[in-house]
Design goal:
Blueprint (H helix, E strand, L loop, with lengths): L6 H11 L8 E3 L4 H5 L4 E6 L9 H10 L3 H6 L1 E4 L3 H13 L3 E6 L4 H9 L3 E5 L3 H15 L2 E2 L6 H17 L5 E5 L4 H13 L4 E7 L4 H8 L7 H4 L14 H10 L2 E5 L1 H15 L5 H12 L9 E6 L6 H8 L1
Parallel strand pairs: 2-10, 3-4, 3-6, 4-5, 7-8, 7-10, 8-9
Antiparallel strand pairs: 1-2
Length: 326
């Protein structure tokens, strides 16, 4: 347990990101005041799509880079990511006046690539596998003296992402269930650490696509289980195509996560549509999965009243979004 991120570490990360990351709201959805007054179950959506980079990833990236000694910052940073973490590193590096190199799969949606380029980052394309991304980023760090900013398997990143949990418990102290998307596991690791420290009785439930359910398999096996890139690549949720959760996030998951729910591709699309039409919130497919679990898998969730789902990002390709809304 000593290797797990603590509440004081998350609170220090919150201090670092203050004024950079947005304290995102909890949006009622579906909006039914009468049901809430009657004591029925309700949902609040934590809209991380409202961050400057359109996703929660800014929290961990900025906190990690801002914590580096000046001499390491000056050499620049490198990361590997399917999109949102890369954009967050680019934004943080620009804010701090340092160089950023981003290793991205060539399948990354254009909207995410364009955003990274607009922030002045250098992009290196690789094959769409976790190993190719990590190997290339490591080689660049060794060759040029860059500091590697991992997307999820790092205590600094987990502490930064944990600020999402810190905020949601402070804004909704009686929260009963927190629904969190799972990719590499950095978000659910940090949120789980914060929520369980502040409200131990709350349940933390991970959510992922059925077509990329490696976290569900990992929790069942008691160890990280990898899926092939060809398998995870089938889901519309491009940000959740990581082939296995990280070792450190998995240790947090075993300590703090109460279950994992998998949602279908149609449920992801339907949720994106409903969030846009009913709540005026734009969710990329990866950002919609947690809300989809509440809408379509309530029977699999613990019996509870106050639910929060984390809408992790809204960087959706315009053509895909238009297709979903039809």
């Amino acid at each position: 347990m000593s290797d797990l991120v603590s509440l004081p570490e998350i609170e220090r990360a919150a201090e670092r990101i203050a004024g950079v990351a947005v304290r995102t709201p909890l949006v009622p959805f579906p909006h039914d005041p009468a049901a809430v007054r009657a004591g029925e179950p309700f949902l609040r959506v934590k809209a991380e799509s409202l961050q400057p980079v359109g996703a929660f990833k800014l929290r961990g990236a900025y906190s990690a880079i801002a914590s580096l000694p000046p001499e390491r910052r000056e050499r620049g940073v490198v990361t590997h990511s399917s999109g949102n973490h890369a954009q967050a590193v680019a934004y943080a590096a620009r804010a701090l006046g340092i160089k950023a190199v981003l290793v991205m799969p060539h399948t990354t949606p254009g909207v995410k690539v364009d955003a990274c380029m607009a922030l002045g980052a250098e992009i290196v394309y690789v094959e769409p596998t976790s190993q190719a991304r990590a190997d290339t980023a490591g080689k660049l760090a060794d060759a040029h003296g860059f500091t590697l900013i991992p997307p999820y398997d790092d205590a600094r990143i987990i502490a930064g992402q944990g600020t999402v949990g810190l905020e949601l418990v402070r804004d909704l102290p009686d929260v009963d269930v927190v629904l969190v998307p799972i990719s590499g596991g950095g978000l659910i690791a940090g949120v789980g650490a914060a929520v369980k420290a502040l409200r131990p009785q709350a349940r933390v439930i991970g959510v992922e696509p059925e077509l990329a359910a490696d976290a569900r398999d990992s929790m069942a096996a008691g160890r990280p289980v990898a899926w092939e890139a060809e398998e995870t690549g089938r889901t519309i949720a491009d940000g959740l195509r990581v082939q296995r959760v990280g070792d450190l996030p998995f240790a947090h998951m075993r300590a703090h996560v109460d279950g994992v729910v998998a949602v279908t591709e149609d449920e992801i699309r339907q949720t994106m549509r409903r969030l846009a039409r009913e709540a005026r919130l734009i969710a990329e497919p990866s950002g919609a999965v947690a809300t989809a679990a509440y809408l379509y898998h309530r029977a699999e969730l613990p019996e509870a009243r106050a639910h929060v789902s984390i809408l992790s990002g809204g960087n959706v390709d315009p053509a895909l979004f238009q297709d979903v809304l039809r």
